[in-house]
Amino acid sequence: MRSGLEGVVSTVPLSTGEPGAAGETHDAQGRLWHWRFRASEPFHRVQGAWMRETPQGVMGVHGTWLNAPTAMWWDCPDAARALEKALSPGDRFDGLHGPLQGVRFEKRSIQLELHVDFARQHPLFVCEHECGLAFAHSLWRLVELMRTLGWPVEPDVKASALLVAHGAIVGTRTLVQGVSKLLPGHTLRWSPEGSSVRSRVDLVSERHVLRDMTEAIELVDNAFMTSVESMVTTNQVHGCSQVNLLSGGLDSRLVLLATRKHAPDVRSLCFARCGSMDQTIAAEVAGSQGTRHRFHSLGQGAYMTSLATVGDYDGTVNHLASAHHRSALEATPGWDMGVLASGQTANVLFTESAPRHLSEAFPPGPVPQALRPLALEATQEALASSPDAHVAKIWNRSFLSTNSGAYSTRPWGVLWSPFASVDVVRAALAIHPSLLADHRFYLSWLSQKHPEAQDHMWERYRTRPVLGARFNRAVWQATWKARIQKRLPWHAAHSMSPVAHWRHHTPEVKAWFDQPNPALLDQWKHHPELKAALGSSWHGFGVTAESSVLTLLEASRLLFNP
Fold this sequence. Notes:
37% of the residues lie in helices and 17% in strands. It has helices spanning 77-87, 139-149, 157-166, 213-237, 250-260, 277-289, 321-330, 346-349, 358-361, 372-383, 389-402, 422-429, 433-436, 440-449, 469-487, 499-505, 507-514, 518-521, 528-534, 543-559, and strands spanning 5-10, 21-26, 32-39, 48-53, 57-63, 100-106, 111-116, 125-129, 132-136, 179-181, 186-191, 194-199, 241-245, 267-272, 292-297, 337-341, 414-416. Strands 2-3-1-9-8-10 form a six-stranded antiparallel beta sheet, covered by helices on one side. A six-stranded antiparallel beta sheet has the order 4-5-6-7-11-12, covered by helices on one side. Helix 4 packs across helix 14 (440-449).
C-alpha cells in the first residue's frame, strides 16, 4: 500500500486513530464536526511528509518535491513558508513540481481543500457521505477508513464496465461506489454545504500558437531539460542512484541522453523478451552513453500470472505493464533507487494524430455487444469534464492509465517521467499540428538538441530516426505491417512483451487464464449485471480484456469481502 495523506471530517465521533492532527469544531448551525488528519511515513528517501496545525487550521503535503529549496524540506522553515503559500487560495499548488499531494483545512469554516499533482502520480481517493468526507492516498486505505466509520463499501457497476472495456477506469470513478479519484492537476473543495472540483492548470488558451519550428524546439527543450535536471538533483541530494528505464524506443532514449548531461553515473534497466530489438537497441544506446546497464528477460511471460501488484491496485490491469515492471525490479537487487526515470507521456504529447472528438480519445476495446451501451455511457460521463479531446487523452490515457503503472514500482522507487511536468505539457500543447505531422517536430528536436539519439535504430520503425525518404518508407511499411498483423489469426512474438502470444503458447500462462481459481470466479457475485453482459465470452476478447476481468475479480475479492 502507498503512503500519503489521509483524513476524515464527520459528524460522527471518530475512534482514536494514528498520530496526527485531530479536533472538533461547531458549524454555523451548531452541529459538532470531528476531524482527523495524518501524513503517513514515506516509503522512499526522496519522499517527504509535512503537516502543520495552527489555531486556524491544518496543512499537509506528502510526496516527492522535485524543485524543493532543500533536500530535507519537511524540516526547513523557508520550505514551510513556500508550502503554506502553495496551499493558500489561488491555485499555487502547481508551483510545487513532482508527484505530490496536499491538504488544507480551515477549522472555523470547516472547509477542506485537497490537491493532487499535475500528472496524478501521487493520487488521492475521496468518499463523500451524508455524515461527512473521508480521503486517503490509497483506495485500500480509504476502504479501511470507510468500514471504521460504518459507511457502505459496494461495487460501482459503471467503473467495472470501464475497466473491462478499456483496461483502465477512465474519469473519476473507482471500483467502489461513491469513491472518486481526483483527476490529474485537480483540486477538490469541500464544506458541509457541498463540494466542487476544478482543474488548476489552463491547457487550452495557448493551444497551437507555435508555428515556428526553432521557437517550438527551444521552448520544449528548455522545459524538458529543466524537468530532467530537477529529477537528477533530487536523486543526488538524497544519495540515491540515478536509474533510467530504457527500451528500443525514442522517449526513454531521449530521457537517458538528457540525464547523462546532468549525471556522471547512470544505471539503465531494460526488460523485454530475450532476443527482441528492444534488448539489442537498449544495449547499444547504453553502451554509447557509458551507463551501467542491466537487461532483464521477461522469459515466456510467466510474470503475467503474478498477483503481487493487486494490493496497490489503482484502476489499471495488473497482469500486463505493471507486472512486467515489478518482475524486472524484483530481479534487480542492490540498486538504491530514488526517482526512477521513464519516458512515458511523450507519445501522447507529440502525436501527429491527436484526437479531435471525445469519442476518439478513449475508444473501447473489443467487448461483448451486451456490454457496449453501459461502457459507452460510462465513458461519455468520464470524459465530459475534459476541456477537449487531446486533454482528455492526456489525463486518461497517459496519466490515469499508462502512468498509473507507477504503483507497481512502489517497493523500489518513485516512477517519474520528465515529459509529465506541467511546463513540458504546456509547451507541447502549444505546438501547431503542422509541425507535428510526419514526426517532423520530434525528429527535428533530436537533430538540433540531442543528435546522439539518431545514431541508433528506432524499434517501432526499424530504422534510424532521421527525417528523409528512408524514414518515410519505413513508417509506411510498419503501418501496413501492423494493420495486416491485426487481422491474422495467430499472434506475433516479435515485440518486447508479446503478451497475446504468451497467453496462448506458454503452458503455465495459458492454464492460468483458461482455468482461473474458483475462489476468483466466485467474485462474480458482486457484479451480476456485468456477469450477465459478459457471460463466458470474456475469454474470447483478447488478453487485455481477459486481464481486465481477472483484475476486477481479484480486486473485488479484497475490497468487498470484509
